[in-house]
């Protein structure tokens, strides 16, 4: 996958994850952090997909879906460990 497609998948996945789990005003946001969240979610989602036996698909929609699932997991873990508030 080219790096440009990887960034686009990350941005889409991060946007989907933030739409499913909207944050509060004190949580950081912006398109760059959304993209980073989606890229990190792609790694977590890839691990989840491999564990479920869906590895190696390479289709765009499945990549975005599992990246969004991974990003949602990251948001959930972040809120679990910070108590729903931003650590300063």
Defining traits:
88 residues, 3 helices, mainly alpha, globular, 0% strand
Number of helices: 3
User: In which range does the helix fraction lie?
Assistant: over 70%
Q: Find the count of extended strands (DSSP E, 2+ residues).
A: 0
Q: What's the average pLDDT? A: 80
The largest pleated sheet is described as:
none
Q: Which term fits the overall shape?
A: globular
Radius of gyration: 13 Å
**Cα end-to-end separation:** 37 Å
Low-confidence stretches: none
Seen as an oligomer or otherwise, the chain set is single chain
Order of helices and strands: HHH
Structural class: mainly alpha
Range of strand content: under 5%
Question: Can you walk through the features of this model?
Answer:
- The chain is mostly helical.
- It has helices at residues 3-20, 31-52, 60-82.
- Helix 1 (3-20) crosses helix 3.
Topology:
Elements: H1 3-20, H2 31-52, H3 60-82
Helix pairs in contact: 1-2, 1-3, 2-3
What is the gist of this entry?
The chain has 88 residues and is mostly helical.
